[in-house]
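ARCHIVE ENTRY
Sequence with per-residue tokens
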Amino acid sequence: MAPVPISLLRALSIPETCQASLSTAGLGSGFTSTGAIRATVPSTNGQEEERRYFLKTSADGKSAEEMFRGEYESLNAIATAVPGFCPRALAWGPLEESKGKSFFLATEFLNLGGGGRTSQSLAQRLGRLHTTPAPPDPDTGKRRFGFPVPTFCGDTKQPNRFHDSWAEFYANERLLTILETSEKRNGRDASLRELVERTASTVVPALLGDGHLGYDRNGEGEGITPVVVHGDLWSGNADRGQIVGSGREGDEEAGDVVYDPSACYAHSEYELGIMKMFGGFGSSFFTAYHRIVPKTEPVEEYEDRVRLYELYHHLNHHAIFGAGYRSGAVSIMQKLIKKYGE
């Protein structure tokens, strides 16, 4: 146990006179340091109550600042759409004690475990998230594809600039952006660049283009509406759990929960790319999920769309971890280009 930095106490509105401690036992993360705060604070009835918070910190300067701001907005976008589906973010900012070198993110505490995930519960909560339209853009009044701030998938920055067209967003903010990131880290790769650029210019419009996605073979439909997606929903970012010690009127009921999001306003099926890539969800989940969120028209192109969305995560893993994921990305692109890009 360690004392809680004063700047964190202030950010969480915990009186400095209260008993509070910071523990890092049993917690860990690939790109950040994590811990838990316990604080005994006065309650509204004059008694004392224990509050619990989850904490992430990083000394990675500007990147940490942007990463935690993105996760703060991501968590709260999901929690607003589906309360209890993820912990709410409570505060983020610089650790004053570090003189601007370290940043923090504090959230509600998520007590994980209790029987493992259930397909029905996760499908219901994710289905509710994916049927809740994104909020209108305050400047235009339109529901647009993007996100108010950059987010990070792993340690990869995603700009999330707003677009009216989902195809333009996916081509520019995901495929071409991750190609640039990969080349900065791994060196220029002419053959990979050619494949990504061909995919972005031919396959993406063919499968995701305006006037096509969301319309059946007879041309009937309404297009697609942007919804909040988690953005990095592999099986390690979902579990059964309960939000506890939040100080709200009763803690959330235990259920299937998600965490470590990389949110944006997107096509709902974008979420399924990484879920299919690593597995762990099973056919019963997808059956239950698609009862709530039907496959987008043209239904016959569903598998190819999900494969196209999976491509981004192969490219992202290639950017983060190196050559091991290149072949998977190349295989997807070659098959899709043969079918839609020639």
Summary: The chain has a mean pLDDT of 90.
